[in-house]
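Same chain as my last thread, 232 residues:
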Amino acid sequence: MEIPNHIAFIMDGNRRWATENGLAKTAGHGRGSKNVERICEAAWNMGVKYVTVYAFSTENWNRSKAEVETLMKLLRNYMKSSIKKAKKNNMKIRIIGDLSALEKDLQESILELIEATKDHTGLNFTIAINYGSRDEIVRAVKHVSEDCIAGKITPAKVDENLFASYLDTRELPDPDLLIRTSGECRLSNYLLWQLAYTEFYFASVHWPDFTKEELEGAIEYYNTRQRRYGGL
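reply #2:
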């Protein structure tokens, strides 16, 4: 069975899981965050080299103050504990998104985590925080324009490969498989450029209930697809 090199996740359904289990919506995020580690371990043991997760979108700021605060608290707690966990698991962690909107202490924790894990050779784990694909593309266009004005590049030099080097994901291969949980069938402004030739798998279960067996089922589905990259 062919194992995808890179799997991207949209971890949907945390709030619905909490509601269905008679819990506060914020409790679903805590349960979902714990599942990330389990799925990363399962993916690595299966041979997946890259995992990217959608943790906090640019649109998530529009949620209630209490929910945003809960999500930021979870991120802070993760950053505090992840250096030790990443060292134990030899995991290399990257963060994509516009970090300038985050509070200074969280930005510093993120940079510390990236630096501490940069030489690790295990799973490449990428977290999208304050990330929106349209925002990413606009930021890339601005940087390309600035470099053209500065004379570093010329418009004639701009092609797909050059443009991709300005994206947040410039160090990553494009995902082979996208998994979205909770039965939703849309991309929600996630990796629009990078998913051009990616296979999509939509799981009916909510993210907290997404298991190793669910992951195996997604990869089995991936193996039924004929990946042609635009060919006949």
